[in-house]
Amino acid sequence: MDRTLLSLNGEWALYYAPEKGGKEEAFRPDMLQAWPRVKANVPGNCERALVDTGVMGDPYWDEQQLDAAKYEYYQWIYETGFDAPAAQPGARVFLRFDGIDTIADIYLNGAHLLRAENMFVEHEADVTNLLRETDNRLIVHIHSAMNYARGREYPIGMRGTAHRNEICHIRKAAHSFGWDIAPRLVTSGLWRGVRLIEKRPTRITETYYAVPEVDRARDTALLEYAFRFETDADTLEGFSARLTGVCGAHTFERETPVWFVSHNCEMTIDHPLLWWPQGYGAQNLYTVTLELLRDGEVVDSVTERIGLRSLSLERSFERGSQKFQISVNGVRLMVRGTNWVPLDAMHGNDQNRVDAAMALIRDCGCNMLRSWGGGVYESDRFFDLCDEYGVLVWQDFCMGNTNYPQDDAFARVMYDEASHVARRIRNHASLALWSGDNEVDQKNMGFHLPTYDARYNRVTHETLVRALQAHDPYRFFLRSSPEIPDGFRTDDVPEQHTWGPRAFYKDDFYKHSSASFIGEAGYHGCPSPDSLAEFLPAEKLWPMDNRAWAIHSTEDVRIESRLGGRNRLMADQVRLLCRQEPDGLNEFARISQLSQAEAVKFFIEHTRILKWRRSGIIWWNMIDCWPQISDAVVDYAYRKKLAYDWIRRAQQPRIAMMDEVSGWQQAIVLANDTLEAADFRWRVEDADTSEVLASGERTGPAGENAEVGRLMVDPSQQRLLLLRWTANGEAGVNHYLTGFPKYDKADLLRWTDAIQALA
After folding, report:
1. Fold category of 201-306 in CATH
2. Options 3.40.50.720, 1.10.3720.10, 2.60.120.260, 3.30.160.40; CATH of 3-198
3. Which residues contact 341 (CB under 8 A, 6 or more apart)?
4. How far is Cα 460 from Cα 478, in angstroms, rounded to an integer?
5. Residue 616 parent element (H or E)
6. What DSSP assignment string belongs to 59-114?
7. How far apart are CA 93 and CA 394, in angstroms?
8. How does pLDDT run across 491-550, given as a tens digit for each residue?
9. pLDDT tens digits, 469-479
């Protein structure tokens, strides 16, 4: 495989100027003398470089996000110099860009190398004959994404989300143009690394590993693997391939002759150490090495980590018996997960946030996350951590809420993009399934266009299908999230995004949703005053009725006719819960966070209580990508809202919960999502009086729920109940708020303290 010769990451020179007349300019050396210059880090963003050097105010502070708008129409030139290391004899040297945002021309030593027009894929060019031993000069000329976009054709039926038709053509993170989770920051830059690599004449070019079958009764796993290689050898005689795998003390090995440059094999592995999602078993990872041999000598090798596990999705749209069930190694999975949104609105900072964000995912007990289609395809580091932590990945292709072009040119772009991405991440044990996009089916239904039918979405229904059949045929593919076939509504398909009225979280919409699986559900929660003070001036902290709060909520104040709508929604949720108005910002933030915490807790526990009629929830969302007021349960500064701890308890693999009132009774339910039976000892007590209201002992069967008792309740009573248990000797705790709003403010604040103090 390819070997890195030289990293070009680090400090570069960055030049910048407007694009005159909205037209791209070809690079000329005199631009570097005429344009302003600053230092810029690679990986990074042009805008961040301007902030770091004092040219531009930080768009994350106050209302300064609006000041970034003029840079949407700028062009940028990155420049660096380097000496070229020697490559091995016969090898070719390539210049590789792991991520360019977005429209760019690249020059090396005065020669034009390539044109980049896609943020999501790698770009590379053969530079063997252009390199000098010393004083190589590399230029990256990045053009305005907006000027590129406005030069495309926009038929009257083509629509982007929220008045942002520029999303339609350009292959750039959709949230960059503004979303409810991110500011409008139409960024530019070398957002991932740059390096020189060498490619030897005989080299493995790609590998693929799949486990179509795990037989736990026979203790075997079927491993299929495929690879391709290149060689300048006159014939293919004498070639063979040897595969070895090691996980702890367990090993396997197989050598086969190779008669062609493309080769497929399969082998049955006895006594495999299986990979499981978090909470279901160990995350066993095999180090596998594929060696290409010629006449018994190794000429190339590739070492990767894979997991031996099978994955399946049972899905049915039949009304009355809808189903959406993910299974791992033949075991039905109760999904407890979150949506993964961009780590940073300026993606050059993603690399600095992935470890901390994934630690939150692991600590919170998530066994799946959905990589949302409005963002980017995450880094190898992200997938490595998901493999290690046992977190399955539902991967949307990067399209969202938009009526995308369906012509041949765009189809080719998407085929190439899907092929690139599939080849890069397909061997990860954590990658569970693909989805064509985020809410495109749902959005198109909302356009009310009588000539539109979701079946006409050629890109997802044909192009992506073909790409995955070619490059990752063993994984399930959803055409959209949610996928809405012809003749169906958004509320009668198995996988749904249940946002609803955003009113009381236990109203009928949430309690009686027909969803078999919830792909999105969330609730607003105010950040802590300490976090607010880090992005809002003191005079704008309270009250919230000002433009800075609206900008950070996140609203585009240039196009919204009513500002502060999302903040008013959050305030209304507080008023609905609490009988008295909060006394200032501190109380407002605390009660808002309690409202959010109870809501998301209810969404998770109600899903678990409905097992297996409902098979999982992927709630919205873990962490913000910029300082804002949002549905995230951890803010951009990594401060956890109350919901974080509430969710962490609600997602314990073994838990005691209370169902909603029915016939003046509330059921007590034990859930055991593990592969082993558990001996529970449990009790329910009043938090204020310590009175034990119910108790008992019960074996919780593996992978199932058990109702163990009922409490007679008066629905008008407002109480905090504590549920305590041990399961196979391990202690757990949960809580439940009885009754309905409005609650007394003093009670809410006292109960919040009590819940926070739970061990």
Report:
1. Immunoglobulin-like (2.60.40)
2. 2.60.120.260
3. 175, 181, 182, 372, 374, 375, 621, 623, 625, 632
4. 9
5. strand 616-619
6. TTSTTGGGGGGGGGGEEEEEEEEEPPPPPPTT-EEEEEES--BSEEEEEETTEEEE
7. 35
8. 889 999 999 888 889 988 888 899 999 999 999 999 999 999 999 999 999 999 999 999
9. 999 999 999 99
